[in-house]
Amino acid sequence: MIISGKPSRPYSTEKRDAKAAETRTRLVAAALDILRQSGGQALSLDAVARAVGVTRLTVYNQFGSRNGLLEAAFDAVAEQGNLAGLAKTMAIPEPRAALAWVVKTFCDFWMSNEGLGGIFAAAAVDAELSKALAARNERRRGLLGLLVDRQGIAEGQAKADIVDLLFTLTSFATFTSLRGEQRDGEAVCALLLPLCDQIFSGERRSISPAAT
Asked: Where in this chain does the record put each HTH tetR-type domain (predicted)?
């Protein structure tokens, strides 16, 4: 129907959505830069707004809260690090092969995200950031628990011990400690794979000094 003599033109939601998505991407990138370089306590909706050149309300409308911003930043890091590939873990029929896939995936993830050190360091002085990181890490613990269940070799405290050991060995802290200045990421992964497999298989032998 024509009212004014000119055909009505609907508002372009595609352009609006594209602009909003572009802004969101810029905001997340700014948040990650602040986390990696300035520490968690420097991250706020105001700081991100200033970095991108938008209003605080724009940031709030995108994320709702600082925690929402943190979650979006972690999602971006996971996407960049190809953690989406973990979804295929449970489709791998052999549990030990599935575990190897998890170990390799996290080795690649830790190796490809040099800025994570700054984020973990910031978490030491930022309770909200620390809580958000811990929640993300618990997803890894949950996945390892499912694999141990599939293996069917332990339950109760024995299962908890295996999961805790695997959780520690696949952590960023362990990866960074082993990498040091002497090994590259692939060498670290080569160390971790057989050790994780041994633990996963229920072989609780101690490692001799010669092996270290």
From this structure: 21-81
